[in-house]
Specification:
mainly alpha, globular
């Protein structure tokens, strides 16, 4: 994941991964648990979780559903944080 000098994500996709990590922590879900539940290889999920590659919309929806959220919940929080930071 590329970061700027402040250590913050540089892309919106990375911000979405951050929102996924935050919600998974709140839900106390492990990477391996989520990967298995959405039928994704743990290594592939790990790359998406770390922001090294982007979640496809269907993958994001599956992860969100597992936590009782929608993909829109995850992306709206990521969008708010990303654009608030880039506007500053």
């Amino acid at each position: 994941m590329e970061t700027n000098r402040s250590g913050l994500p540089q892309t919106f996709d990375e911000e979405v991964s951050g929102a996924v990590r935050a919600e998974m922590a709140r839900a106390r879900l492990a990477q391996a648990t989520v990967a298995e539940a959405i039928h994704m290889h743990p290594n592939v999920f790990g790359r998406k979780y770390r922001g090294e590659s982007a979640f496809a919309p269907s993958e994001l929806a599956a992860v969100a559903h597992l936590m009782g959220l929608s993909a829109a919940d995850l992306t709206s929080e990521a969008e708010r944080r990303f654009f608030a930071r880039t506007a500053a």
